Amino acid sequence: MKKLLALIVTVMLFVPLLSGCGTKTKLDPDNPVTLTMWHVYGEQADSPMNRLVEEFNNTVGMEKGIIIDVATMSNSTEIGQLLSDAQAEKPGAEKMPDLFFCHTNNAGALGAENLIDWQDMFTEEELDGFVKPFVQEGMIDDNLTVLPVSKSTHVLFINGTEFKRFSDDTGVSYDDLETWDGFFDAAGKYYEWSGGKTFCALDYLLRCVELNEKTSDRNYLTEDGWYDFDSDVLKDSWMQFAEALAAGHIMVSDLYANTQVMTGEVAAGISSSAAILYYNDTVTYEDNTSEPLAVEILPFPQRSSGKALATQAGVGLCAYKTTDEKAEAASVFAHWFTESQRNLDFVAETGYMPVTNKAFDAIDKYEFEQESYQKLYKTLQKTVDEYTLVSETNHTNYYPRVYELYDGLRQMQLQFASEIDAGESVDSLAEDTWELFRSID
Amino acid sequence: MRRKLFLYMLMLVVIVIIAVLTGLSLIGRFNSIEDDYYEKLNMQIEVFEKDIINEFDHLAFMGVRLSENMTDILHKYYDSGEARFDGSAVSVDTITDMQEEMIEPIRDQLLKTNCSGVFVMMNTTVENTAGNDHDTRSGIYLQKSSFISCDADDKLLLYRGSSQVSRKHGIMPHRKWKLEFTTDNFPDYEISNSKTEQPVYNSYHVSNAFMLPGTSDKAILVTVPMVDDEGNAYGLCGFEVSESYFKSEHSQPSSISHLTCIITEDDRPVLNTDIGLSSGVENGYYKTPDTELTYTRAKGNLLLFKGDKMRSVGLIKSVFLHSGGAHAIVVMTPEKDYKSAVTEYTIKTIILLILLIAVTICTAMYLTRRFVAPILKTLEHIKTGDEYDADSELQEINDLFAFLSDKDKKHEEKLQALELEKQKAEEAYQKAQSEIDRLAYSRKSEIDPDDYQYFTEGIGMLTPTERTVFEHYLEGHSVKEIMELADIKESTLRYHNQNIYRKLGVNSLKQMLRYATLWKQENEKE
User: Fold this and answer.
1) B301–A contact, CB cutoff 8 A
2) Alpha carbon of A378 to those of A298, B203, B395, B450: distances in Å?
3) What would the pLDDT profile of A105-161 be if each residue is shown by its tens digit?
4) A278 and B128 in contact by Cβ < 8 A?
5) CB pairs below 8 Å between A and B: how many?
6) Dihedral pair phi/psi, residue A312, rounded to 5°
7) For chain B, how many helices (H) and strands (E)?
């Protein structure tokens, strides 16, 4: 009798427990886990990332019990700020997402200990399949917190229709834009030719200044994450841009260079290669006339001596540490997303460089649907082959100061034309910009 | 006994189960999963309905105000003859002036309104020198790039309109900016240039969702015509509710972890979610519904919604957001979840029943073991044993046995006394019999055999009445008793006595009884 009772009680107690045994995964297709995602791919536009997430949700996600919900699409700067606000639980801030794409410096600000180390999720062999410098860029201390999924570089986008008119009249060609000297010369000529229109809007002026330095490859950043203003080389480089800025030949973009090209305000823009996603086929002027944009994409202008330098930019995938179930789901998504063919298809739609060696090798033979994308990847290939790619700094204090500088320059450039009309010299105005730069600490 | 006990215990099991189940039902813990889901989804659809009605009421109210404000501005240009608002082209300068005047009030309205964007589409187009043939309309379309209210002011984008004007006001162009509205797919464009006598507050309309050109976001517009007091139409204005805004601001608080809420055109029996918007729950769950959903009745009041890739249970309701027709709102949760809940419920119920049965059986077995078994054991012992065993496990049995034992003892003593008495009586009887035999023998020798012979023969000659009287005498009754028993008078008895004496040859009652005793003894021996 006692044995029978003991058996009944034991069975009743252990049946529910036993049902959970025998499976290693924490994922349950019948009770899917939702991962919120913030990304930067296709903000304000048709997003290839959203389509990919939809595909994941309807295939692997459904099979394994994972739903990715794209909660926010924005640019990397804003996502960096939103993440910081969310982590600090500021009033009105969004809830911290499970997956997000950000720069390494943003990840560092969040704390590597709060983020999943992808080395725990990928085997060594799998990580060897990634382009090595891209992986290194995502390391914080010994943790791989930012998984490379796509990388961009800066390129020169040009309104082909407008440039043709300019070229026909002045003889300036695309070849002239290969170097910074040629670029500034062309910008001055365009200003004259167009009756005072700015030639090019720059999204990342400081990056241009850094990579234009003429005599040395050394880094100008101090340990504090800001510039060494005692460097003559830095000032020389800055002044070259500052003079063009003061003269109205170039400008710091209002928000994005691509919108200024599309509105006919400028003829060219130096932006991330990913800006290709945002270019319309046409440029529309204020008087409601429009014409084909015929976008031309050239490599980042080269410095006059030494090997050409280009930026290696782009956000990577981070996963916020919460539960084991979510960590496993994040790993499933990361593996799926970085499979070579999928990585190639994704970057080919978004204007980025792939991150796996296989995808990189395959891009040569990739058939692009649009001519503009074909042009972009030809340029990217040339950049990879002929340039040295240099990563951006990861210092946490760097970007807030950069944005402060850009805001100051935007205010200043509104006055340059009237100040020159009032008798101010370009050199003096350029010197003012240097002082503004120095004043930020 | 055992069979009867088993039946009683079975009855106990059944009664306990019925009592527990009834109790659970009464306190509502035993509702079916259908009822439970219906209750939750019904509450959810009511919350969602209220949310939707509030949102679109608010947008209609703000839209009417926007229409009035914009009409006031545009009326001046109409009056001055600078613009006719009949679709004809207007100079760049005039359009720029109009937009310059409109942009700040539009920005204010956008910031005050719960929406993702605002638009004012005028029934004009910018005159272009190149003579491009544009089927477009000028105006301003602003969007919020962030839905966090504190950030809204510096997160506005110009989706349509003059970028020169917007830049002056610190509003940057959208990534997919265009100067003018394309009229092809713009909702309610046809009413933007038609005269109307209806008051503006009766003319607003809630469009179906459509893809915002160049983006992967779709939106519903609340459109309000801009009409002056004379019925002249200036265009169309209103607010945008984009899918990303709807998802972000209308995710529902819910105890249902996987919930999808949809608003779309009420075109039953097929619902096209492509022309509607959807949201998930506040815990972060959101799953885009399939484009086409059909539905059938599932269990109880629940409906089963079927798409290409999804099957969900939920509810549907009609809401009237404008005079143009009904919208359908749907709340639903995956059928898989519902089925899991049913399975879990069934398993739990079975476990509960098994538990109840097991507990009751165990209780019955325990009771049997503790109380009934000792009684049976004792009874068995009584059957086989000689005396009561006062060492039972039950005090009551021990007491009973003590009582019975005491009673037995008294009975024994009484029996022994009776036995002794009986023995004495038998001995007295034996003694008396011997005396009778001795007396009979001595009398027989004193009696004349001829007289006795005459006596025995005389008995046969007695009449029945005489015989009865004779028997009474033999039984030892007195004269008085015989008179009562035979119901005769003394004289009659005397008469019978004389006849009896004569026939038996005796002279007295004493002689007759002596002969009779001998005769009786002889008869008994024979």
Assistant:
1) no
2) 9, 54, 104, 175
3) 899 999 999 999 999 999 999 999 998 889 998 999 899 999 999 999 999 999 999
4) no
5) 127
6) -115, 110
7) 13, 19
What does the block give as tokens for B192? 């933007």
Whether residue A305 has pLDDT greater than 70: yes
pLDDT band at A365 (very low <50, low <70, confident <90, very high): confident
Whether omega for the bond prior to residue A292 falls within 30 degrees of 0, making it cis, is no
Instruction: Tell me which residues of chain B, numbers 205 to 244, contact chain A at a CB-CB cutoff of 8 Å.
Output: 214-216, 244
Helix, strand or coil, per DSSP, at residue B293: strand
Give the whole-angstrom CA distance, residue B180 versus residue B224.
19
Strands A388-391 and A33-39: unpaired
Residue B256: φ, ψ to 5°: -90, 120
In B145-265, alpha helices (H): 163-168, 243-249
**Using alpha carbons only, what angle is made at residue A299 by residues A297 and A300, rounded to the nearest 5 degrees?**
120
Residue B150 has pLDDT above 50, yes or no: no
Q: At what angle do helices B395-446 and B373-384 cross, to 10 degrees?
A: 30
Top mean-pLDDT range of A72-76, A77-81, A250-254:
A250-254
Question: Does A46 sit within 8 Å of B173, measured CB to CB?
Answer: no
Reading the block at residue A239, the tokens are 């002044």
Q: What is the ipTM of this complex?
A: 0.79
Spatial contact of B137 and B180, defined as CB atoms under 8 Å apart = yes
User: Best mutation site among B216, B259, B274, B337 for testing chain A: the one with the most A CBs within 10 Å?
Assistant: B216
Cβ-defined contact of B178 to A74 (cutoff 8 Å): no
CB contact under 8 A, A289 and B340: no
Both tokens of B43, joined, read: 């509450």
Residue of A nearest to B172 (CA): A255
DSSP A302: B
pLDDT at site B331? 95
Q: What are phi and psi of B117, to 5 degrees?
A: -165, 165
Residue A284 tokens read as 């529309």
* Total number of residues shown for chain A: 441
Q: Which of B177, B113, B87 lies closest to B140 in space, CA to CA?
A: B177
Q: What is the pLDDT of residue A292?
A: 93
Task: Tell me which residue of B155, B172, B179, B33 sits closest to B99, measured CA to CA.
Answer: B179
Which H/E stretch holds residue B347?
Answer: helix B335-367
- CA distances for B200 relative to B100, B223, B430, B433, B467, angstroms: 25, 11, 140, 142, 141
Give me the pLDDT at residue A115, please: 96
Length of chain B: 526
